[in-house]
Amino acid sequence: MRQFLVRIHLSDDVQGWGEAAPGLAITGETWRTALAILEQEIEPRPVGRDALSYEEIWKELDRTTLGRTSAKAALDIAVHDALAKRAELYRLISDTGN
Predict the structure, then answer these.
(1) Per-position DSSP letters for 4-60, written without gaps between them
(2) Cα gap 45→52, rounded to integer Å
(3) N or C: which end of the chain has fewer CB within 10 A?
(4) How far is residue 92 from each of residues 4, 14, 52, 84, 85, measured CA to CA in Å?
(5) What tens-digit pLDDT sequence spans the chain (98 residues)?
(6) How does DSSP classify residue 1?
């Protein structure tokens, strides 16, 4: 099973990473189809939008990419990773601050 990584950049230069491992038997997608959906359908939609409005973005993605779970999952993880870094949530769960 091949995996792919998604990296997003927020306007304040915070980066978030997400990963997906599409499997034909599980998600009905191959890594090639998931990557194509990500590049053609998903990638253009959140550009220039506030990452905190992700619920609105997700509703739009659900309407346009029904059943394409791998690519959406990778983006979802990347957005939440970036938002957690922006909020410095690691300080809440680590006694060392790292």
Answers:
(1) EEEEEE-TTS-EEEEEE---HHHHS--HHHHHHHIIIIITTTTTTS-GGGHHHHHHH
(2) 14
(3) C
(4) 29, 18, 20, 11, 11
(5) 788 888 988 888 899 999 988 988 888 888 888 888 888 887 766 677 777 777 887 787 788 777 788 888 888 899 889 888 888 776 666 665 55
(6) -
- Identity of the amino acid at 28: G
- CB-hemisphere CA count at 13 Å for 40? 9
CB atoms within 10 A of CB 76: 18
